Amino acid sequence: MPTHADKVNAQYDQKTSNFISLQQRLNEALQLAPVFAGLLISAVAEFKRRNPNWIKFEDIHLCQAIQVSIDRILIDTTMQRALNMRHVINILSNFQETMVMAIQVYEDASKPGYYIAWDGQHTAIALYVILTKVFGQQLANAMVPVVVYSVKQKLQIRRNFILLNGDAKEQMDFIDIYKQQVSGVMIDGATDQEWQDNATKNKYFKDAGLFATHSKFGDEDEPGAFTLLADTLMSKSLKTRKHPEVTRMFARYWTFLNEQRPVAAKEARQLYEYFNACYVEGITVDDTYLLELTAFTKQYFGADFSEHGMFWDKVKMAYTAWYAKANPDSFAEFGLKGFVTEWRCGGPFLIAQIKKSTGLKTPTYVPNNGFTVDKKDLW
Description:
- By secondary structure, the chain is of the alpha/beta class.
- The chain has 14 helices and 8 strands.
- α3 runs parallel beside α4 (85-93), α7 packs across α8 (193-208) and α9 (244-257) packs across α10 (265-280).
């Protein structure tokens, strides 16, 4: 039976666009996150209460653009972000006629007579809910404003989607950009290096039973869920962007770990930074290396990097011993300072423990706080 990771990663296997109706898009989103069904019912009831003068959909005065029947609008699921029901409900809860922006669409030769929404799906879905669930009207007779863009290459639209989603829209998270870039390579043949790198990273994830996600999708507790995209899979800065090889190392480590659980954020951070340090220093991290590393993490702290686990308890003990010796006056007066469950504290300890307990070659790392680990403070 396919795992949840298999189902999520299957979206990147598509070689062509996938067009679905507004109704299907809403139904699928509610099936994936049923908790929003009740919230949607409440939002519809509240909408009716706040707007008693609107008896039918046509009573709402939307902006003027090209008017098309709402049933002529399709969503390209490979281009649009996953439907965020919380955002849809926020639109309903704060609805004003003057806030409705025209849905941005293009025409696709494979779907004559239809308009493909490339931006504004949340507006389209909100209008669909108002039409069908508030007023109980049929799709075919309701007209909504759209702006039609002349598009020769859909890759151009993908680039626009990333660049134009700004202050007036639901902000794009790393996961939204990641999905666009992977789909852009798989479907539209994008050759941008960053996009191709992310497609490569996603292949490593897929092979390891991992999948990139976000808490807004409601699947962050599924086995293989990876939610810490910042400075792991993605980065705002070229300086901190990590090579796909680092993701290969992590994905193979996860394969050998063989645990049916989501990836903890602290775990992702520590291991990505460790593997990145190995990559930068040219250390070969092959399957033999990773098998020994996996055995080490399991043996010493159950491969548990969570904030309140054994690993950080031991790191804090070692850091406290170092800090008290390095800063005796400050420690005596103010107590422990500067300890965080982040790489600058965890990294020196992890490297020192691996060096002591295994035959693996380790990278060099000294944080800017100068933290070093005394051998007596290791396991």
